[in-house]
Amino acid sequence: MKDSIHFREKADARYTDASYEINLACNYNCEHCYLDERKNRKLDVEGRKKLFDTMSKAGVIRLHTSGGEPLIDKHFPETYRLAQQKGFLVRISSNGYALGNEEILQLFKELPPVRLAVSLYGASAQSYEGLTRTPPGTFEKFKKSLAVASDAGIRVRLKLIITKHNETEIEAMKALAEGYGFEHHIYSRMAATLEGRGAVLNNQAASVNLRANRTPFKGCGAGKSFFHADPMGKGSICMTGRDQTVDIINEGVAGLDKLPVIADQMLTRGDGCTGCNLALSCATCPVIVNKYRMAKADKAFFCQH
To answer: How far apart are alpha carbons 158 and 247 in whole angstroms?
Structure first.
C-alpha cells in the first residue's frame, strides 16, 4: 500500500484547502487578465518549503497552484515535488503552452496532478492569438501540447474562456475539447482586475446573459476553511480578497489565525449595498462587488437593480 497511501504528521486542521500563486510572470499577455502587474516577484525554494510546512501544519489537503503561468517558473518541478511530498492533492491552472516540454510531461506522468485545468481562448489562431496577444504559431503549439498531454493520459479539464474575440466559436471550442477526450467547462463572465481596473471588462461577450443561472450568495469558507497565498507568501482570505494580508512565512499558523476575523469584515456588505432589499438574494460575493464598483463596471455584472 506504500505507493497508494501517504502518511502525514498529525495536523491542527484549521483549513482543508489553499491556493498558491507561484508567480506573476506569464508568457501570454491576455486582454482579459485580472492581474495588474506581471513582475516576477516570488519566493525562493526555501521560502516555498516554509510555506508548504505551514500549510501542512494547518491541515491543508487540497492545494490549487496557479500563476501568472506556473509551468514556466524555473523552480516549478522542484516546487511541485515538494507539494506532492507533503501529501497535498495538487490541482494546477495553466495556459497549457508548456505541456509539450519533456521535463513537465515526465513530471506529470510520474506524479499526476489531481486535475490540470487548461484555459482555451479560441478555436482558431485569429481568436486565440488575438485575445492572448501572442505571436503567430502560438495556437498551433498549444494544440500540439494538448495532443501530447492527451496521449500521455494526463487528466486535463479545459476551461473555455468566452469573450468578444471568440463568442462565435463556442461550439467549435467544445468540439476541440471533445476531440482530445477532455472534459470542459465554460467561463463567460469577465472579472475586474485585482486593483479594480475595468478596461478588461470590455472583453465581455455580448451574447452572454450576465443574469443567467445565478444563485444567491450565502457566504463561503474564505479565510475559514480555505485561504490564498500570493507569490511572496502573503496570505489572504481568497484569491480576490487581498486588501488585508498576513505574512505566512514569518508568522506561520499563528498568522493564519487572523484570517477568519478579516473574512468577517470583508464579507459584510457595505458601501452601496447597505439597506438593499435584495441583499439576501444577491448572487455576487461582497469582495467581488467591491472590485466591480472600483472598476465602475456596468451594474449588470454584479447588481440585481
So the answer is: 33
